[in-house]
Amino acid sequence: MSASDVESALRSEGHRVTGPRLAVWRALTESDGHLTAEELAGHVEAIDPTVNVASVYRSLGLFEELGIARQSQLGDGGARWEIAHPDEHFHMVCRACGTVDHHRGSLVQAVTDHLAGHGFQAEQVELIVTGLCTRCVVAS
Predict the structure, then answer these.
(1) What is the mean pLDDT of residues 23-37?
(2) Full 3-state SS string of the chain
(3) Among 5, 81, 85, 89, which one has the highest count of C-beta atoms within 10 angstroms of its own C-beta?
């Protein structure tokens, strides 16, 4: 999603397009994703040193509300932020080096279908698989 798409999303929901919001979006899109708000604030500071951490948190919350960013709990006790992606992308977290990758597969849909068969309508599925990435398997 480009900066102009973000501007359109903000305006369509009655929000102002501000420099801090655009700086947070830029930092989020230029990073590898899966960063804490504090880590993102460091990236934002390099873009615009006048943006404070509170503005980063508010922008991330607004982006999540608009459905263009998402927060994930990847098992390390902190919230990680990334560009929104469909639920069928699940996270693979390397317990050795901390790398987080996405994997797309039918497993999330199978879980959703299974739950629907029990009368539960899933709204969001966060699947996290912890193990060793290829690089760490080779190194061990």
Answers:
(1) 90
(2) CCHHHHHHHHHHCCCCCCHHHHHHHHHHHHCCCCECHHHHHHHHHHHCCCCCHHHHHHHHHHHHHHCCEEEEECCCCCEEEEECCCCCEEEEEECCCCCEEEEECCHHHHHHHHHHCCCCCCCCCCCEEEECCHHHHHHC
(3) 81
